[in-house]
Design a protein that fits this description.
Layout: H1 2-26, E1 32-34, E2 41-44, H2 46-65, H3 68-92, E3 95-101, E4 105-106, E5 110-119, E6 125-131, E7 138-142, E8 148-155, E9 160-162, E10 167-171, E11 178-184, E12 190-193, H4 210-214, E13 222-229, H5 241-245, E14 251-257, E15 263-266, H6 275-291, E16 296-300, E17 303-308, H7 311-322
Helix pairs in contact: 2-3, 6-7
């Protein structure tokens, strides 16, 4: 049964693939697209088909009963049905769509595309709808030659670089009896960051306060730096008793830690979690450190980003997380 079902689906997929290639040839991807007869399609709507059926019934009734008034009504509706496609087609013909920007988004949120929509010819365009497949349409009325800016959104899941489907633009103006539409590719690519997921408080940066530094005890990894004159308040454990017993003045030992005191968001700090969870946790930490104005760096397998702050630094960190290669659990 599986092979028969696959055989039935195969012609449909082949037809869809052939149709997509045909559309790509007629309307190739470009940051700016002007709609013309090669990119526009028009068909009657259900209301248009119902009107055509009504005209046929009126024509039959008028002919059967020899009623000139009914025949005149049928001819009037037929003339209207002949003229409407020209107006509906002309409402979209000449419209120009230009991609402006597509800022990054977070996985599980909405990605936004800002486009400029304008029409040539100095005439108004009414009832223009723009939308992604399956999303609510944005309706525009272009009353001036300058046009308007439109913001269309699309839900995104998964991280990385995401190419959305073609954008629909359509119109049923003026009476809704015909639908003229086009599918345009504005060569859009969204950068999608991992979805932020809390991993608890920020990791310890290792930076010590002034009071703690005065009383700091030697720890593993600390290196002996030398002697300094003893000051009241220094820990007795740090006193150089051997030198003092040899007749020298009282001194304290001073150590320098070999640990990096800066805040690092480290891949290895989240061991035991799968790749996507680690990336989501690191993303949350990066946003938290930025909010708290703490300089932070990022360590990932194969590279690192030195600690910093600011919008550009945050974008570098989030981009590195978004483009991290897909890997199995570690």
């Amino acid at each position: 049964m599986t092979s028969s079902r696959d055989d039935a689906v195969s012609p449909v997929r082949h037809w869809q693939s052939a149709m997509q290639r045909w559309i790509n040839r007629r309307a190739p991807a470009a940051p700016s697209v002007t709609l013309d007869h090669r990119k526009l399609f028009i068909l009657p709507t259900r209301a248009g088909l119902a009107t055509l059926l009504l005209i046929a019934l009126l024509w039959l009734l008028g002919t059967n009963y020899e009623n000139n008034l009914v025949l005149a009504l049928a001819l009037l509706l037929l003339s209207l049905l002949v003229l409407l496609p020209l107006h509906t087609f002309g409402n979209l013909s000449g419209i120009r769509l230009q991609r402006l920007d597509s800022p990054p988004a977070f996985s599980g949120d909405f990605a936004a595309l800002r486009i400029a929509v304008s029409g040539r010819g100095g005439r108004s365009r009414e009832g223009v709808e723009i939308f992604w497949p399956g999303q609510q349409a944005l309706r525009l009325d272009l009353m001036t030659a300058e046009g308007e800016e439109a913001l269309v959104t699309l839900p995104v899941s998964g991280r990385g670089r995401v190419r959305p489907p073609r954008l629909y633009i359509q119109s049923r103006f003026p009476l809704g009896l015909f639908r003229c539409w086009s599918r345009v590719d504005l060569d859009v690519e969204f950068l999608v960051y991992p979805q932020p997921k809390s991993a608890g408080p920020l990791p310890d940066s290792g930076v010590e306060g002034e009071g703690e530094a005065l009383h700091r005890q030697r720890r593993d990894g600390d290196d002996f730096a030398g002697l300094k004159s003893y000051r009241p308040g220094d820990s007795l454990r740090q006193v150089a008793w051997k030198q003092y017993a040899g007749g020298r003045e009282l001194h304290s030992k001073e150590y320098h830690s070999s640990a990096d005191p800066r805040l690092w968001l480290d891949w290895d700090q989240l061991a035991g979690r799968d790749v996507e969870t680690r990336l989501s946790n690191l993303c949350h930490w990066a946003l938290q450190a930025e909010r708290e104005n703490k300089a932070y760096g990022l360590r990932l397998p194969g590279g690192k980003i030195e600690p910093g702050l600011g919008v550009e630094h945050q974008q570098r960190v989030l981009t590195a997380l978004a483009l991290f290669p897909v890997r199995g659990p570690r």
